[in-house]
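Escalated from tier 1: zinc ion holo job.
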Amino acid sequence: MFAKVIIDQDAKALDRVFEYIIPEETDIDVGARVYVPFGSRILQGYVIKISGACEYDQSKLKSIISAIDEQSVIKKELLALMHFMVKKNHLKYSSTLRLFLPSEMREGKVKELFATYYCLNENCQIEISLRAKKQIEIIEFLKQNGKTCSAILKDNFGASAVKSLFEKGVILQEKEQVFRAPEFSPMNQKKVCLNEYQQNAIDSICDDKTYLLHGVTGSGKTEVYMNLIERELAKGKNAIMLVPEISLTPQIMSNFKSRFGDLVALLHSGLSAGERFDEWKRLYSGQARIAIGARSAIFAPLENLGIIIIDEEHEQSYISESNPRYDTHDVASFRARTNQCPLVLGSATPSIDSYKMAKEGEYQLIELPVRANGKEMPVVETIDMMNELRAGNSGIFSNKLLAELVNVVNSNKQAMIFINRRGYSSFMRCRECGYIAKCCDCDVSLVYHKEDNRLKCHYCGKQYRVLSKCPKCGSDQIKQGAIGTEQVADKLKEMFPSVNILRMDNDTTTTKNSHQKILEEFKNSKPGILVGTQMIAKGHDFEDVILVGIVDGDQTLYHTDYRSTERTFQLITQVAGRAGRSQNEGKVILQTYSPKHYVYKFASNYDYKGFYRKEINVRETAQFPPYTRIIRILFSDINENNVRELLKICYTEIEKLKAKYGRDIIYLDAMKSPVQRVQGKYRYQIMMRLNLQHADAVECEAFEIVDKASKTSVFFEINPQNLS
Ligand code: ADP
Ligand code: ZN
Ligand code: ZN
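Tier 2 regenerated the structure:
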């Protein structure tokens, strides 16, 4: 028999299918890890196919050295997924396969999948000398406790004692078998009485379709998810639920743990490699039947899926922006199709792309239009910061926000102050008239680049001189720069010296539990003010938060990305959803320099549909996705001449496609990347914008050109979230 094997190595030259002979009497499954000879080395690989005939010259084939696993560790469905992803996202086999396995099982750190157990050998008559104390103790221990995991015995009595008993035949070794899936019996737990919308959602989600669950913040989506999962478990099926890393709060984890107990495996970034491996094993063996986690949990080794849920489906973090690049939605929908199960996308602010699919009937739209606790959404008051400036207030806070903060402090309540700091690039804005410097070709804001003191467009690469005067009103108050959380927190401390002011952002949450500690402290601070970035925008339920202040709503708006407006709408809605969650009335103060922008009107009325109608029009007119496809091909190399050479070759070839596809290629150019060097590598890129009609074909041809020309890997990004 012959095996097709993928080698677990990064080199592009090795990233193809190799054939090996399976030695007689060796039992190897498709999906198992193996050791194979490669040149003078022995490498780890994965068997992806077994067949009776070989495709290459048999006399030149080598034999597999040994199998690492007795059973397949990558199940059939995931192997099919590998082929799908390699093709769709132009990925390497090896890096795709790595997504499926915990790091502990990969090249160099091969761990055995099955734990070793020991038990007493009833048929053994050998007497152990009383001087071998440890060995006697082991025998006593096993008599009392029965079969025990090798690690426990070795920890307590030493490895040599265990070994010597085993060699004498006094104890027997057993590898733990794969468990059968445990029965599911719902736990006793106070159950809420579902409202009609929730019940309708649960009843409607039953086919192997994609459902868009559009539920306002606080509408009780979590309850819907739990009921859906419960239903599938009762049918003997398994479930995957994805949440953004940031909302993997202790709150949501304990919710699921108390409802489903040990059937839940939680996969989040706080786990050590070992813990991750353990959770993976519990899923693989069927001990755990619900995988909950961030993006990578979509690769959970579960079969027989009854439902896949993506909560906060609009979140950027579902798109992997580093190698291997993929969109979790594509993977989820592949797995849902294979398992013929429903895929549920939930959000209070669905992505424009998803909502369009729902409008066109590709997705089934289900709505939860009211908050589960019956409370109204908090009132959003928009403050024109231009007016503040004209009235002589050039500070960070408007008079209104200050007055509300004083009110919070006086009534011993809490406030959250939100500052948007996604990324660090910044735009130029006139402090007098609100003018924002934009690209004349692309209608996105320009980004200030300090290293060469220029303004640049991240879509077309066009450069502009830095402005010293506002072209609209002539003022010299035209500045670049963003307000930071630290600045805001310091200001607040000055103003309210006796109030506990907490700060949560990337800088204050570097250690493992810092996130939780800050939230815990905030919970106990009354009055208290929490200043933070998007980290505070979701997932937290604080009863006494009666005020949410959004200091600079514009910072996402002018963020140089065609999705800026969409992000702004999402953020405002999420942040506003933090206020007034309980008995207390909530209020939101939204400060902006461009109060007339449509996004504020719709966001402050919680009018998602109105926003969608406007935004989809803008996209169509400006020819941006979802009406077109943007492709960025990113080249990078230590040697700048090499990248430029390669870029030139590829660009010349790709340009020829224009003859064939004509106006379907709306835009094509080659340029330096906005961030020109990362980790010592020079970065260049080709940007394309394509009409949807022939986008697949152009993409394919472009990929082939690039793939043929380059020895190192080149990254293909489709509708990238981030153009740095
Ligand atoms: P979402 O995720 O849609 O923003 P959550 O799932 O966090 O909303 O629910 C908001 C709050 O409403 C939670 O405290 C939840 O326990 C509560 N809740 C959910 N469903 C109901 C219900 N049917 N009746 C009363 N409270 C509910
Ligand atoms: Zn101006
Ligand atoms: Zn431009």
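The chain has a mean pLDDT of 87.
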